[in-house]
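Many introductory courses stop at the sequence. We go one step further.
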Amino acid sequence: MKNLRFLYSTAEAFPSYRVDLTELFSAGLARRGHAIDWHMELVDASHAGTIEVNANERIIGCPRVCGRSVFARIVNALLGVRHELRLLWLPYSGEYDFVQVRDKVGSALLALVGARIARTRFFYWMSFPYAEAGLFKAKDKSLGFPLWKRSLLYLKGLISLQILYRVVLPLADHVFVQSDRMKADVAARGIAPESLTPVPMCIRWEAISTAALSRPAEPWLAGRRLLVYVGTLVRVRRLDFLVEVMGRVRGEFPGALLVFVGDGPAEDVALLEAAVQRFGVGENVRFLGFLPMEQAWEYIKVADVCLSPLRPSPILDPGTPTKIIEYLALGRPVVANEHPDQAKILRESGAGILVPYDPDAWAAAIVQILGDGQSAAAMGERGPPYVRAHRTYEELVPRMEAKYLELVGGVLGNGRECAAS
């Protein structure tokens, strides 16, 4: 088997904490001997140029100047443009087996040209429908965006949509998408289904199954029935829905406590805090903000029920949320609403209750779990074996490796034949 060498451009900054980058590529493919050049931003502005991470990974970073002055912002904007333009010549200089761009439509256009000049393959990785999301947010007045912002979102979304579906995806040698639902959505726009491969979010089983988790020591947890949500608090997810559900649950379990683990923009979190006051559940809701992964797992581990609400929408339906996988892996019963990936997981595993996106239905399911410890324990026990069999990076990495090797087809970057493995 040959070792691959590829260029991967992503909007994420180094060091990245996205598990699909760290586990699938850094801890997965790179450790199996494949070389990755990351084209990405740098968190630390003091770094510049190329950073050697290890024998198989290096960062082709974007230099930055420190400061928030107008001058610094102009310089950084120009440096950012130069960073993206490098995608025109980097594919030729690196002798890569392929070039891959994740979720950056404009950069994908540059990288596509660069890959064609270098006579190597171009792959696009679509983890989220960002173009569609801009149009959705522009049209959804309930999100509270001012007219000028909605107009910009609409214009950006419209332009991105045209570039993505008329140029980038039709000309890409292959496209990786997040889910079966996203594959169907993209194919419905005219992209050949055989050129699309779903790659769902997973977890690293070794990390979560061997983590030394202790019970959180906060005194406010004592004697409370704990409901846990882990994830981003951005307004598009409309998590005030959970606050409304909590208002119904407290009627049956007055001491129940809903804990939000995660962060979001300050104005989005403020909307959630306002909802807490509006529904009168201040004694039943806590916001813990962002927590390191293992600390978040500690709250999941002691939860009576874990929650995975996904507002039905064209931008959330194609997702494969990690939170529900973590909940199941840690043996907790789950309440989730109808959603393509969540429905598949809960129907196959039997590890929770699937309900419509309705506050009364959600409250009834939560009350059912809180009131029946034996049934809740049985749900929790079904989660870990399901996750281990179907949604781990240990299982996904060799499949992705095989897919890349299949796509490369025995030809190295720049058209040179590879040696037999």
